[in-house]
Inverse folding.
């Protein structure tokens, strides 16, 4: 074993309720995979290896939301086995698209989706990891950005703070030289409320941002909602918030209204959080 | 412009404009001009007139921009689009240098500017004004953004007169247009069939000769003048009341409108991104996985961002209302103090491209209405403010000259690391170039570790050829710094800033009030006072700390006492082992018999502690002019060009960090500044 490989930080990648897309971002770092493997010991990574580990971990990357009673127990156990816990992706940081059920009558949805609903052990809510245990850092997005993942790993290795800005997508969009799809195109772009990190991909292709990175610091939801509401029905505006980050506190109110409008009688029963 | 042979205007048929583009390209220039793309007019490379947006015109309103086709053959029949030329003079991302670790040592290489030879085609009067404003911010010294200066010097400016104006245009009220009068090489006015061509520089005159234009007829000139007059007429009544605006605005720092506008403002930073004069940047580090080779890169940043005014201990502008006030007061008021001109050129981009249509003209009228609107005419105070015309924007003689001061990164080796408290350490560094040791008490250096962004650290002593830096491990960068082993190398830039004015203390008693780690930048003062005690009166050091364990330099306090300093200490809280006083540092001042009212005071500590101390000292009869404070702000560049530490008329890094309380005025201790 080379000196470089000795004392490698033990890194685990685990998943809760999620689609595995964020884990796959690690594999997407193709050219960097070998250097990363030389510097970090990947002790658990279900998308890459069937080898399992009981920990302990120096760093644990957690994908997915807490959606079942088992996951709620597991995340508490995992937290006790790791030095640093980093959530990756919208599910882990905000509850994911599956958090739309937080406003719904969960048993009736379960019965509508599964032929044998009694086999499904599910919580009434899908919640972010940070509602259960302390989180040291988070990578946003659905899925996360490979550049931000590499930045996180580089920062861990060098011992500095990862440069993950809380700024709006608009800065990346303007730096990139995109024409604003909101002002020039009249599209309901969520960029002004959304945390940067994706590189403003969607507006670069003429499409409005749909906030997959979630609300940014001091997101002024009410103001943009009012502005969009001048030319649109309110339900259309509410739906903009009912995406992967619907359960994120700045988006929760309009998202809840959108679910209630789609399922009359259910949104009003939203758990009081 | 001085020194240009007067050249009569020429006339160029529209079909001949291609010749101008061809000449520029033949001379090795890339021509950047307007093109219609993605629903807007943007500036990008043009290779012929067929790239130009023939017949396109724009309709602009707050939060709204639409292009439409008129079928006209005109090539410049629109106003300004989302991009200013700063994309080319101050690009969104610019590498500033590389740091390499090799065999235990480090090497720093500054990026050498290598600007492309560009020709800007279609620059409007407000946009030229914006370049001249940025020249003052980035290239007027004492420090200079070398990359910006090189890009500006390498670019040719071919202006176009505005013959129409949009609803968001207000250059007339800012005194920047619509006529192009300076800062250009050539200026075109588009007419029905061609262009009136006029010369603005020697380079322009040379081009004009090569171009072989026809002589312009009186009818051409009259049509051109009528076009510009029409643009001017459109803007009547849609501007801002600019006369006396800086004073009016600074009088309204407590306006309730700041809260109201913050209810609409998204703090998304679009206004600052599209503003052609906003110049704020941040430095980030990009490295390989091991930090062996890292590059620093400067990128556009904005005072609307949450991290912009953040320091390890907190955020100086946490709320949207703080950030909107910062932007508007800087742009329209304190910009005058700093650069002798308004920061606004009236292009209207911030209005059009605000996603929720906030109109600065409306906000200014609501926050800082003209005095006649505030007071009945009879009661109106005579004010010079209302009479002084706006300062003309013109290029100061030193602009685009090389920097008066250069600050290269000097490699220094860590000789020793000593522990002061549980989280605070003093590094002793031996620089390879001893010039950096010529430090005035209170100055700071930027410390650069490869893989990290540079951070500012006050010098806490210079002794025996070594620079001492006392560092609290408050974040990862400082933690890494205090963990370095002797022999390791770091980069230093400096010394920077204005330190304590010891000359003001000569012959007087000196009061030094320090809080916690605030003693570090004051220790060089104490060293200096003890070096030549005959030149000063009595010296009191009042030192407050959170706990006895948080006190710095405890081993030296007795040495200072023996040398004649009166040292009083107090802590916020302590256990039974502490036999000294418990309370706040002002208690050490209240109990004194203040016979010496002409004393000079030097303060450094948390801002709240300093404001309380200033009150106590003023009660004791010491005037604000003789109380000096060292301010903490987010410093990113250290040389006054990144904008982070701007505070009223100052950049704290360049004009401070030490200020007299009187020069800070009512900005000192104010929330959200």
């Amino acid at each position: 074993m080379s000196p470089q490989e000795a004392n490698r930080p033990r890194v685990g990648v685990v998943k809760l309720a999620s689609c595995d897309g964020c884990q796959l971002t690690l594999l997407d770092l193709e050219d960097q995979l070998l250097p990363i493997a030389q510097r970090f010991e990947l002790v658990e990574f279900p998308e890459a290896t069937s080898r399992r580990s009981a920990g302990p971990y120096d760093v644990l990357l957690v994908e997915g939301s807490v959606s079942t009673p088992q996951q709620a127990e597991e995340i508490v156990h995992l937290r006790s086995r790791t030095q640093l816990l980093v959530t990756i992706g919208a599910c882990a940081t905000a509850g994911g698209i599956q958090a739309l059920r937080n406003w719904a009558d969960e048993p009736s949805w379960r019965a509508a989706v599964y032929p044998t609903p009694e086999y499904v052990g599910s919580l009434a809510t899908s919640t972010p990891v940070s509602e259960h245990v302390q989180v040291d850092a988070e990578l946003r997005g659905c899925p996360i950005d490979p550049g931000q993942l590499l930045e996180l790993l580089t920062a861990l290795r060098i011992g500095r703070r990862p440069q993950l800005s809380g700024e709006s997508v608009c800065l990346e969009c303007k730096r990139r030289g995109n024409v604003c799809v909101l002002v020039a195109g009249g599209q309901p772009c969520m960029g002004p409320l959304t945390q940067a990190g994706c590189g403003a991909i969607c507006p670069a292709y003429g499409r409005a941002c749909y906030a997959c990175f979630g609300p940014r610091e001091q997101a002024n939801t009410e103001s943009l909602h009012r502005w969009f509401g001048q030319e649109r029905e309110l339900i259309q505006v509410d739906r903009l918030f009912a995406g992967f980050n619907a359960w994120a506190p700045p988006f929760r109110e309009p998202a809840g209204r959108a679910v209630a409008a789609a399922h009359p009688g259910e949104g009003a029963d939203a758990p009081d959080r | 412009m001085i020194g240009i042979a007067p050249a009569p205007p020429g006339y160029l048929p529209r079909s001949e404009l291609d010749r101008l583009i061809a000449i520029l390209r033949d001379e090795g220039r890339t021509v950047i001009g307007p093109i219609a793309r993605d629903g807007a007019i943007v500036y990008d490379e043009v290779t012929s007139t067929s790239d130009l947006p023939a017949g396109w015109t724009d309709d602009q309103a707050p939060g709204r921009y639409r292009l439409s086709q008129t079928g006209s053959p005109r090539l410049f029949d629109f106003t300004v689009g989302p991009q200013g030329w700063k994309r080319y003079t101050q690009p969104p991302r610019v590498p500033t240098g590389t740091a390499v670790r090799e065999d235990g040592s480090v090497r720093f290489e500054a990026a050498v500017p290598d600007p492309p030879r560009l020709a800007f085609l279609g620059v409007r009067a407000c946009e030229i004004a914006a370049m001249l404003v940025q020249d003052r911010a980035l290239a007027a010294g004492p420090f200079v953004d070398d990359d910006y200066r090189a890009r500006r010097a390498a670019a040719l400016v071919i202006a176009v007169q505005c013959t129409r104006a949009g609803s968001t245009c207000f250059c007339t009220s800012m005194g920047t247009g619509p006529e192009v009068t300076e800062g250009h090489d050539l200026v075109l006015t588009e007419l029905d069939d061609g262009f009136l061509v006029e010369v603005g520089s020697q380079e322009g005159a040379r081009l004009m000769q090569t171009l072989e234009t026809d002589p312009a007829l009186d009818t051409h000139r009259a049509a051109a003048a009528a076009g510009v007059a029409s643009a001017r007429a459109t803007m009547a009544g849609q501007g801002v009341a600019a006369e006396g605006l800086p004073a009016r605005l600074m009088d309204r720092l407590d306006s309730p409108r700041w809260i109201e506008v913050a209810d609409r403002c998204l703090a998304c930073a679009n206004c600052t991104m599209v503003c052609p004069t906003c110049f704020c940047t941040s430095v980030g580090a990009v490295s390989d996985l091991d930090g062996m080779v890292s590059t620093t890169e400067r990128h556009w940043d904005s005072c609307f961002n949450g991290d912009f005014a953040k320091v390890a201990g907190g955020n100086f502008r946490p709320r949207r209302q703080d950030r909107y006030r910062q932007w508007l007061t800087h742009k329209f008021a304190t910009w005058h103090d700093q650069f002798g001109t308004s920061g606004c050129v009236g292009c209207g981009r911030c209005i059009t491209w605000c996603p929720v249509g906030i109109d600065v003209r409306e906000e200014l009228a609501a926050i800082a209405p003209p005095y006649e609107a505030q007071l009945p005419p009879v009661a109106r105070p005579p004010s010079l403010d209302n009479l002084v015309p706006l300062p003309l924007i013109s290029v100061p003689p030193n602009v685009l000259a090389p920097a008066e001061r250069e600050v290269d990164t000097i490699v220094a080796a860590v000789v020793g690391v000593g522990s002061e408290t549980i989280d605070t350490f003093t590094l002793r560094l031996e620089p390879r170039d001893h010039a950096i040791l010529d430090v005035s008490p209170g100055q700071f250096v930027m410390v650069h570790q490869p893989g990290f962004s540079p951070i500012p650290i006050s010098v806490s002593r210079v002794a025996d050829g070594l620079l001492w830096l006392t560092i609290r491990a408050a974040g990862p960068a400082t933690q890494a710094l205090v963990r370095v082993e002797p022999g390791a190398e770091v980069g230093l830039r400096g010394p920077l800033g204005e330190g304590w004015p010891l000359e003001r203390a000569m012959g007087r008693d000196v009061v030094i009030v320090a809080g916690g780690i605030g003693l570090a930048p004051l220790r060089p003062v104490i060293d200096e006072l003890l070096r030549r005690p005959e030149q000063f009166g009595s010296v009191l050091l009042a030192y407050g700390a959170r706990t006895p364990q948080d006190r710095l330099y405890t081993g030296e306090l007795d040495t200072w006492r023996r040398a004649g300093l009166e040292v009083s200490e107090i802590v916020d809280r302590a256990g039974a082992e502490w036999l000294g006083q418990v309370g706040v540092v002002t208690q050490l001042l209240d109990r004194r018999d203040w016979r010496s009212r002409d004393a000079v005071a030097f303060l450094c500590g948390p801002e709240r502690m300093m404001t309380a101390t200033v009150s106590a000292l003023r009660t004791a009869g010491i005037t604000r002019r003789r109380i000096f404070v060292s301010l903490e702000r987010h410093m990113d560049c250290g040389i006054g060009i990144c904008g982070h530490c701007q505070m009223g008329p100052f950049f704290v890094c360049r004009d401070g960090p030490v200020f007299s309380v009187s020069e800070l005025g009512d900005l000192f201790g104010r929330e959200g500044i």
